[in-house]
Specification:
Order of helices and strands: EHEHEHEHHHEHEHEHHHEHEH
Radius of gyration: 19 Å
CATH topology: TIM Barrel
CATH class: Alpha Beta
Strand order of the largest sheet: 1-2-3-4-5-6-7-9
Number of strands: 9
Length: about 325
């Protein structure tokens, strides 16, 4: 089974954003050593508890400190940006780090309405124009703009020998159809979707059209996992994440993931306990053997080419250990 890493660059209680970004680089190094296929870093805005607002900057740092693991954005939120600039940026990364760059494309705001306005003005209008933006971006990545169109005389330099590989990320049928119609690979966010992911992924495969990109459908399924030596330890680690998520959902801008002690001492309401049960259904939490069993079952259900794991715990050591335990058990 191919395994990969999705990193949201969490800032932990008592730590700084600089700490978080340095630990993200160390996680990529760890993933490379363990044999993970790729490392992606997400994009978020105006979240004090998540440090990566500019994945393209982090990828230069991570690429320079790793050697072979594929690296990419999970995802660049395209409605905020002009396709030409995104193509230039990722072509430059692909020039610096040949045959290692993935360009994940997303359509979420990645932050508050105010942050979206500050970034790109009319976000909803940009979302409506998303199909055209994807088409334009792909033309620049493949350098195949039709001669009769406006941008046919420009190239997104530097143009690499091997183009960045585009992936469309999503949690809905709409994103699956966009990926299929544009002939890109597809990454489905199981950990953040309330819909029938298996049906969505099957829609992508059945609708796939070969264009200038990949030859056949490719699917990554992303799942949130917390693995520890024992089930009890894993459940304790998860409690910190549950509290952080509940507080964020309430509009509280956490400056760090709470400690286990803080989570244990917190009095969860009955409504919050129900919310934790809902979150738990989209996660895998347990010992290495328990995680392997559920992960293999999920991969089989989706028939996924690759499983991507996002892990947030209250310490960088336990996060790294989770990835180590999973790799050892799977391989």
């Amino acid at each position: 089974m191919k395994l990969s890493i999705l990193d949201q660059a969490p800032v932990l209680s008592g730590k700084t954003s600089q700490d978080a970004l340095i630990e993200s680089m160390k996680l990529a190094q760890c993933g490379e050593k363990l044999g993970y296929t790729r490392y992606w870093i997400a994009e978020h805005h105006d979240f004090p508890g998540l440090a990566s607002s500019a994945p393209e900057v982090m990828l230069g740092y991570i690429g320079a400190n790793t050697e072979k693991i594929r690296i990419g954005a999970g995802a660049i939120l395209l409605p905020h940006y002009k396709p030409y600039k995104v193509a230039e940026t990722f072509n430059m990364l692909a020039t610096l780090f040949p045959n290692r760059i993935d360009l994940g494309i997303g359509r979420a705001p990645g932050g508050s309405a105010e942050a979206s306005i500050a970034l790109s003005g009319n976000f909803l209008e940009n979302v409506r124009n998303m199909p055209n933006s994807i088409k334009e971006l792909l033309h620049f990545l493949y350098n195949n703009y039709p001669a009769d169109q406006m941008f046919s005389k420009i190239t997104a330099h530097p143009f690499p020998d091997v183009a960045p590989v585009p992936w469309i990320l999503g949690t809905s049928e709409k994103s699956a159809i966009q990926a299929a119609e544009h002939g890109t690979a597809y990454a489905f966010g199981h950990f953040m979707s309330d819909r029938d992911g298996i049906e969505i992924v099957n829609t992508y495969r059945s609708s796939f059209r070969q264009n200038d990109g990949i030859q056949e459908p490719q699917v990554i399924v992303t799942i949130s996992i917390i693995c520890a030596e024992t089930t009890e330890q894993a459940e304790e680690l998860a409690l910190s994440w549950f509290l952080s998520k509940i507080q964020t959902d309430k509009g509280k801008k956490n400056k760090g993931i709470p400690t286990i002690e803080e989570a244990k001492n917190y009095s969860f309401t009955s409504e919050e306990q129900e919310r934790m049960k809902e979150m738990r259904q989209k996660m895998i939490i347990g010992s290495p053997k328990e995680v392997k069993k559920e992960l293999v079952e999920l991969q089989s259900a989706y028939n996924a080419d690759e499983m991507m794991i996002v892990t947030i715990t209250n310490s960088y050591e336990s996060r790294k250990k989770s990835y180590e335990l999973i790799a050892k058990e799977i391989w």
